[in-house]
């Protein structure tokens, strides 16, 4: 039975029925759907329901659980009202959790190990101290009475020396075992620290939580099962790509992955994970277009000071009032366009709370790219590999970080925008050190290097050069720019030898491109001249 929260949550916030029993239970997260921002969490609860009415209090929902997005299903009981509770909650009791019990047992065993190792150190230290005390006592022994004779003193000296030597040897022998015993203590303490950390991670008794109180009714006592679905904000995922380019038999392999993180205050252990491109918390409807009323009025006369008490003539007030416009609503556009894409991870996963992103592999897409060496001598000293491809996978490529590999070598990283199915995209794959660029400005008899100017004319001459020092031929796209004008008074002309292959590249005025094949060891030069002329008395900007 599924209840929609618009009714049930409202009932839960009102005065509920008086319930005979309260059943305090924990839940187990079985499935999570993560969105670019937020996540839908599915929890399951098993309990023994008494006959009649009772209250089930689930004590492990995260603090940021959104009440309006809770959904419930039940087996074995009939659902009533429910509500979230943030106060008057019983402390969490995780003493029956097998993971908590195992962690506590590990801590107790580690503590016993520390005590045993420390006892070994103490025993060795006691032996050393006893031997040292014996030697110190023997050194203070003096002959008295009948022993104060030459033979008595000699005998006492021999005895003291022998016994002191034996005591010192015993002390040294015991000290030799001390480093190993101290190392055993250090190892035992490390085992204890790890066990305590594990216990603290699995035990959530001290973590703040939200309780979900659910009224249930059972015809007869017996087992019952609840499925709770709710939404949290503190989770997200983002795509990550490895883009692997090979030039011979051109191929671009796009290995897709996902970085998942969550800060809900609890760990997701062994969950069924789904990644969705839907954005429940983003804009869900189009913006509103408001009508715009415009009108034309006579220009307002130059204002003159009014005499004290003078009034405006009829109609003058209307001319001075600004027309009233309907407001335009400015709203953020959705970050991701296109249909929703869902990725279901085939294996159960663990996603710890509050730690670094968990990376999961998705799948691979292979496309056939068009590869060129793009050269911009005006700004760069080398050409760069550019791979253009069409997304023919049938799925959208989401915005994300991409790591770039060319012929198996990592050459850099970039960020890609959303690429819809059937759309084209071009990605740069690093510099080609063997394709050297140069842009020369030939010397002139007068004026600056490469530029001859006057008060009404500027003439520029440039030579674009590219040299292929590699052992293979490259398809090249050479780019440069000449100025353009939208004024009749400013005349701009240019000549290029050879002529450019493309003018106004990608709709950009004045951007020129030369496309050609450059064999290994060859050079290519382009002569580009431009002239700008304007009338006397004008300034060039």
UniProtKB/TrEMBL annotation:
Domain DUF4139: 228-536
Coiled-coil intervals: 114-141
Signal sequence annotation: 1-20
UniProt domain DUF4140: residue ranges: 32-138
Alphabetical UniProt keywords: Coiled coil, Signal
Domain of life: Bacteria
Entry-linked NCBIfam families: mucoidy inhibitor MuiA family protein
Stated name of the protein: DUF4139 domain-containing protein
Species of the source: Cypionkella sinensis
Organismal lineage: Bacteria, Pseudomonadati, Pseudomonadota, Alphaproteobacteria, Rhodobacterales
